[in-house]
Amino acid sequence: MELRQEGRAVERPLVSVVDDDESVRESLPDLLGELGFAARTFSSAEEFLTSDCIDQTGCLILDIAMPGMSGPELQRELKLRRHEIPIIFITASTDQAVRPQLIEQGATECLFKPFSDTALLRAINSAFHPK
Amino acid sequence: MKKTTAPISLAGELDQQVAQQTAELAAANAELKKQLAERRLVEEKLQQEERELKRSEVRKAAIVDSALDCIVTIDHEGSITEFNPAAERTFGYRRDEVLGRPLANVIVPLSLREKHRQGFARYLATGEARVLGKRIEMTAVRADGSEFPVELAITRIPLEGPPSFTGYLRDITERKRAEHELRRSEAFLAEAQHLSRIGSFSWRVATDEITCSEQLYRIFQIDRDAQVTFELIGTRIHPEDLSVFQEHIERSRRDRSDVQLEFRLQMPDGAVKYVHVAAHFRGDHGRREYFGAVQDVTERRLSEEALSKARSDLARVARVTSLGVLTASIAHEVNQPLSGIVTNASTCLRMLATDPPNVDGARETARRTIRDGNRASEVITRLRALYGKKSPTAQSMDLNEAAREVIALSLSELQKNRVTLRPELAPDLPLVTGDRVQLQQVILNLLRNASDAMSTIEDRPRDLLIRTEPDDTDPNNHDRVRLSVSDVGIGFEPQATSKLFEAFYTTKNEGMGIGLSVSRSIIERHYGRLWATPNNGPGVTFSFSIPCNPEGLTSDATHASRIPSASDAA
Known about the structure:
The structure holds 2 protein chains of 2 kinds. Chain A is of the alpha/beta class. Chain A has one domain: Response regulator (Rossmann fold, 3-Layer(aba) Sandwich), CATH 3.40.50.2300. Chain A is built from 5 helices and 5 strands, in the order E-H-E-H-E-H-E-H-E-H. Chain A has a 5-stranded parallel β-sheet with strand order 2-1-3-4-5, sandwiched between helices. In chain A, strand 4, helix 4 and strand 5 form a beta-alpha-beta unit. Chain A is globular. Chain B is α+β, with helices and mostly antiparallel strands. Chain B folds into 5 domains: 65 residues; 105 residues, Beta-Lactamase (2-Layer Sandwich), CATH 3.30.450; 112 residues, Beta-Lactamase (2-Layer Sandwich); 87 residues, Helix Hairpins, CATH 1.10.287; 157 residues, Histidine kinase-like ATPase, C-terminal domain (Heat Shock Protein 90, 2-Layer Sandwich), CATH 3.30.565.10. Helices cover 49% and strands 20% of the residues of chain B. Chain B has 15 helices and 17 strands. In chain B, the strands form 4 sheets. Chain B has a 5-stranded antiparallel β-sheet. In chain B, helix 13 runs antiparallel to helix 15. Chain B is rod-shaped, with a radius of gyration of 57 Å. The chains are: A alpha/beta, B alpha+beta. The interface between A and B is medium-sized, with 32 and 38 residues.
């Protein structure tokens, strides 16, 4: 967990990424770093739940379809455990209909892969500074 | 008398006179006797004739009385002079009730009486008789007023004097009923033949005489009046089927085999019909004949073709729909590496824009971009191979061999995930007919899923069991093999079983797997099934079972047959 970059005393907000896809897990941390965030990646919802990052996570980037517990199920689970972490869903699905549903259920945003870095940044800013 | 002279001669004269008179008397007596005897003879003869006449009359009366037919005689005025017992019974009158009464008033229905009287009068006047000397049918009436059909023959009695007639009548109610039934049944048969488009025929082999039902004429579009010959039939047969037809006829001529033949007709206007002919040989009483039926099955053929076309249309639509699902699935798989590419490239730009530029970081992003690009390409290639136009082929294969190859390919990856592989492959596993590549895809998918399911397990060894065995759980089919992959991973809720096989839910990472939904369709196309069961302990076992030699798939090295692929039937 990188709360400190070398030489900097500033604490970067933690963005946790939960996605079973390796391409996503490999590519996002560096981008998040460039965007000014600290990043942790998990290959499953279960892995995230059993980690020690839940409390420190300021924003959760969450895949929808995963073997085992799905993204929306993790969202429900966190709600049950009273962790109010803002969630940005990301999905490789092409079904546009899921976005309004998820936002209605409390997600900050739902992005469709591949998404641009600006879209991601916009979503994260909404997550950290909700209107 | 001469006088004699002597007195003595007077007495002598008297004697002579007496003697003479006596002689004359005796002669007269004898004459009388003779006449009496003659008269007696005549009388006897007369009596004999009378007796014979009586006997003959009795005989004739007996004939008339015992006749089953009604015999009625009438005089020149039309009054009844004889009315036999049969007539009594038939019409319900006693003889003495009707004697002397006009016939018309007794047995002719009211509505016909005038006509009868006119006809009778005309005959008497002109000698012209429409009804004499032949059998006619008419309606008669009984004593109780009920009318019924009779057959009637009237003759004139050939005697001198005024004319008299004899009528012979027969109650033909039953016959009429039987005729009516016969006509009805014939009409039913004709109608049935018409509805079912079946025409019947008989063929007398010795003379080639062919008798046809109405419907047959219709089927062959032959004029009702035309004589049906093989030559004529030949003109109606489709030229391409003519020789086959002729062969069959010749064969039937020689032996007595039943005929079962389907061929095409071609009508004079060019229209084509399909017919089915069945005929059976009957050789009783020395007549060699075939009795058969011809059915016009054109409509059935056409509707079969239409059905088949509709089916393939439906399959095409379903294919398009499943293609919709498929392209969504492909998009899903490809979007993962694409996302990686876009993210890495974005990162690259940002890294190069810092002051000083982060070249090492940029280099790394470029490397990752290339790798993601390759992943995308692999996904496409693999999916194209699976769903491409080239139809998958069925070969006889060893499932153990195939499994070992997959194990070898994925060993390094499994080991990277600290998975311990335990193969238990049955030594005498029967060969199966199937598509090797596709089945290997399924095995790879199951191995990957099992490995993933254990990726968070730390408290026990990540054991992955892959087992093959003959499968005899199906009572109907013992020629099956089963392959199972068991993990000790996190498992899933029983309710989630169906979700597992949904296209999106199980999309694989790395773009190299094909997902459980695709695996299941591969197995189903091999006429098998794929299912998941939670273990008694932790984890899940995925199994598939396929028949060794599914019907519809023949395994032949030279003639590899098709397993339906997703690109044709749905």
